[in-house]
Amino acid sequence: MKTLANAEDRQEIVQRLGAITPASQRRWGKMTVAEMVCHMNDAFRVSMGEKPAKPIGNWFTRSVFKWAGLWFPAKWPQGVKTVPECDPRLDGTPPGEIESDLSEFRELLDRFTSQPRGYKLQAHPMFGEMTEKEWIGWGYLHIDHHLRQFGA
Length: 152
Description:
By secondary structure, this protein is mainly α. It has five helices and no strands.
């Protein structure tokens, strides 16, 4: 399984990110490419405790859905709604200039994967408490999902 703990997998993400442009068209969903970048930035902020998000999980999402999402060898499903705090059309960060938002993404990715950590990993709004291994795997899967959404 690919993970952000692996330098080669992180480099792959950065290279794929380079294929994203303001003209990138979504293959599914409602977000624009600029909104997607802000969504990923907010998700990093939530994980690092820099942006609060209300928990929306229940027993099923914290057990079965979490296990399937993190460990089952399949692509994530399309159309799963995010928490309002990570939705740029609701309480999330609205897009600014995309190059600035992409630069912020790279900086957040570096902080999220840095060792030793300068922050404490928080509970995931849907999956609940997660180990460092789960968080770092989630990071790769989440970014991969959205890069595929825009053909990168």
